[in-house]
Amino acid sequence: MIRFVLRLAASAATLLVCGAACGQEIDPDIIKAQAGTYLVAPEDGAAGCRITLETDMAIGGHSLSGQDSCAKPLPALAEAAAWNFDGNGGLILIDATRKVLARFIENEGSPMKTEDGAPLLLLAAPEGINRLPTFSNLAGIWTMQRPDGEKLCIVTLKDNAQADGNAPMSLSSDCAANVARLKLAVWHIDGFGLTLMSHDGSSLAFDMRADGNFDKSKQEGGKPLSLVRQ
Length: 230
Prior knowledge:
eight-stranded antiparallel beta sheet; 39% strand; eight-stranded antiparallel β-barrel; elongated; 8% helix; mainly beta
């Protein structure tokens, strides 16, 4: 999944569009790889909007669509008319006059945030999701179960995240043996993923569904497993 930081331009006068990445020809395959639909949303869990980066040419870069959906949650982006690479490893959204409205900076390893003000993220998201998961909006009681409804454990997620980015959690006393032996004790959010972890290296990773519940990540292997909010 490709992720970028979004930063609203602090001084439009000094942020000029670098058309076609400062005169350098961009490989069409790179443009095609970057194209797609992304969710732009505040890190605090407030509503965001979806923007689709397209491959067709537009004034100052390439066309985009969906920006009208930003009018209420993120009005600064509703005027976006095109996107482009900025020549420094970043990506910009510009308006019809080529003024930079937002600058995205790629960073490896974790979901990217804005550098100034209330953090915003730009990342691929499950269809139907319009906001980022947070410790506060995921805290509560969940049922760990099989797709057929077989219940394996009751999981309580708490929202008091620590400095290491993890928050405490607990399992009910009647968990299935294969879950209880994992000794899961903390949980962590990574984009639209949620990971339950022990203090000795055991973990279970889940990916968010469109309905806000979670399915065990395919990379985990083994039998399907879900977390369903009570």
